[in-house]
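Could you join me in thinking about how sequence relates to backbone shape in a protein? Would you write everything just below, so we can both look at the same thing?
***
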Amino acid sequence: MIDLLRTLLEAQDDSRARSQQVEIGPSQLGGCRRQVMYQLHGAPVVNPTERLASMMGTAIHGMIEEAFAKHGDPNDLLLEIEVPGVEDIGLGPGHIDMYRKSDKSITDWKTSKLKNARYFPKQQQRWQVHTYGFLAAGAGYPVEYVRLVSIPRDGTFKDIKVHEEPYDENVAWQAMDWLAELWAVKDNDWLPEPEMSGVFCTDYCNYYGPDVGMCGGKSV
């Protein structure tokens, strides 16, 4: 039954638009440079990653979206909107969880373990939501605030954390410059050093494997 459950859940996850996106997404900005460089080169996926936590996050996102759609103000809220990326730097579209007209804000829901709350918000998360703000503004949605909401999968309502700050285009440019710098050296036969380790690499990186040249391989 476990094998069947995993097979069907992974098939469902693979069918989602976000799973099929091949461009670098805003959520990857500020992550492991080596992992992103492999993706820029179109390297083959060699590691079947563990996806249960992300699937649970997707399910929570779906439940939140349904709740706001049924019981929220339809004149104020826009849910799950897609905005174009930036073709010049190979940045894919942004998938924004919620845009609120009344305060011109973007909200991004995050799920994690309770023990990781002390790291919230990480720079990568701030870069992501400000980049959403940049993309949304370019698509005609005025943005004044960006908001991150961290929901612990193993916690209670009182453990939910909210980070809100004024939208800053400069923060978005920091994130996009990070990606542009990787594109600039893509063809220089150079790979950044691995920036993650342990469980992240073995369970969550598509490019962690035993082959020479790969993370975990003989030459690394």
About this structure: The mean pLDDT is 89. The first helix runs from residue 2 to 14. The helical segments are 2-14, 17-20, 33-40, 52-71, 123-138, 169-184, 199-204.
